[in-house]
Amino acid sequence: MGGLMIVFFSVLAVLFAGLVIALRQPMRSALALVAHMVCLSAIYACLGVHVVAVFQLLIYVGAVMVFMVYTIMLLDDRDDSFRQRFSGSFLPALAILPLLVGGVWQLTERPAGATLPVAAAGGSLFTFASFAGEFMKRYWFHFELATVLLLVGLIAAWTAVREGNHG
Amino acid sequence: MDSSQLLLALAGLLFAMGLLGVAVRRNLLVVLMCMEILVNAVVLSFVSSAARTQTLSGVAMTFFVYVAASCEIALAMAIVVLLVKRRGSLDLSSHRHLKG
User: Fold this and answer.
1) What are φ and ψ of residue B25, in 5° steps?
2) Is the ipTM of this complex over 0.85?
3) How far apart are CA B85 and CA A167, in angstroms?
4) What's the pLDDT tens digit per position in A55-107?
5) Buried b / exposed e across B13-37, counting CB within 10 Å, b at 16+?
6) Cα angle vertex B76, ends B25, A87, to 5°?
7) Rounded to a whole number, what is the distance in Å from the CA of A71 to chain B's nearest CA?
8) B92 in contact with A at a CB cutoff of 8 Å?
9) Which residues from chain A sit within 8 angstroms of residue B82, using beta carbons?
10) What is the value of pTM for the model shown?
11) Sign of the CA dihedral A45, A132, B39, B52?
């Protein structure tokens, strides 16, 4: 059942990723991207990695995409990119895509018997309590660095807007 | 094909689709969305590996990827707003004067 759900959400994730590329209006692309991320979150939940499933929903769908939707509402206008969606490199890129997918497919193929089963739901390492404990024990320094990176990103965004307004 | 291979193939396919979107779309905001698909494909490969081997490192890496992606999107949106204010267009071809 878990495997079937993974296949189902994988197909949906590919479908919505295709819609992000194909749809004309940025707002519809953003909504397709939200659906794509929800599908990925469902796949993580099926794998038993609930921590990442919740991160995906909270950080990406809840924060990043809301931010992006605000920007679309602020900037969206019917310029040349609306009238003509694709650039001149559309056909060459489309021709190269099967080669890229085929190459990745070859990389992921392994000899029979060398595969490990995907963890069924409920791997004990990935519950919130055990993940939080282990994470703060092993990666506390990286966590502190990540907070500094967030602060630097915030200051950089603020500076960019400020300089842009003055310049 | 078992589930881990399926997920790795899915990650590769999503990465290729994101790359295609970055290459072919003209709208700045949609290009940024396609970059998010790229990041999500990488995260999917980390998570599938972590679930397969039952180790913490893949999931911890995912956490740091999310932090980097949040910083990236905050900075990128600020730059996009400035670019659109100056040129009045979301079309990538109107920003050809940029170097790099």
Assistant:
1) -80, 150
2) yes
3) 12
4) 899 988 888 888 888 888 888 667 777 777 777 777 888 788 888 777 777 77
5) bbbbbbbbbbbbbbbbbbbbbbbbb
6) 15
7) 7
8) yes
9) 160-161, 164
10) 0.85
11) negative
